[in-house]
């Protein structure tokens, strides 16, 4: 059996799109969007208070316009060893990542 996990980290650093508290965010993600994966507490992804995981992710795979996260729904694909394999733009559909995920699972 191959394991694959999606982790979501809400952030309110982009035009105030995530103003709710952690409970409200969880409710919206699970009820409206049918999220069936862990939704972590709200964090910062840019600036001096950026969460350590995002400091790491950005240091491994910078974006087209630099390391900073430009908008919500930036996605990172990480292998089982913790190496960041790819970074995807906020506009990249999860379905467009499916082949990369399958290739990564097949190679492990």
UniProtKB/TrEMBL annotation:
<dbReference type="GO" id="GO:0006979">
    <property type="term" value="P:response to oxidative stress"/>
</dbReference>
<comment type="similarity">
    <text>Belongs to the glutathione peroxidase family.</text>
</comment>
<keyword id="KW-0560">Oxidoreductase</keyword>
<dbReference type="GO" id="GO:0004601">
    <property type="term" value="F:peroxidase activity"/>
</dbReference>
<dbReference type="Pfam" id="PF00255">
    <property type="entry name" value="GSHPx"/>
</dbReference>
<dbReference type="InterPro" id="IPR036249">
    <property type="entry name" value="Thioredoxin-like_sf"/>
</dbReference>
<protein>
    <recommendedName>
        <fullName>Glutathione peroxidase</fullName>
    </recommendedName>
</protein>
<dbReference type="GO" id="GO:0005829">
    <property type="term" value="C:cytosol"/>
</dbReference>
<dbReference type="InterPro" id="IPR000889">
    <property type="entry name" value="Glutathione_peroxidase"/>
</dbReference>
<keyword id="KW-0575">Peroxidase</keyword>
<dbReference type="InterPro" id="IPR029760">
    <property type="entry name" value="GPX_CS"/>
</dbReference>
């Amino acid at each position: 059996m191959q394991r694959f996990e999606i982790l979501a980290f809400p952030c309110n650093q982009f035009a105030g799109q995530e103003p709710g508290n952690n409970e409200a965010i969880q409710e919206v993600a699970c009820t409206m969007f049918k999220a069936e994966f862990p939704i972590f507490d709200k964090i910062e992804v840019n600036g001096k208070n950026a969460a350590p995981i995002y400091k790491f992710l950005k240091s491994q795979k910078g974006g087209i316009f630099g390391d900073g996260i430009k908008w919500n729904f930036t996605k990172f694909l990480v292998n089982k060893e913790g190496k960041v394999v790819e970074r995807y733009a906020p506009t990249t559909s999860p379905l467009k990542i499916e082949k990369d995920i399958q290739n990564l699972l097949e190679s492990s």
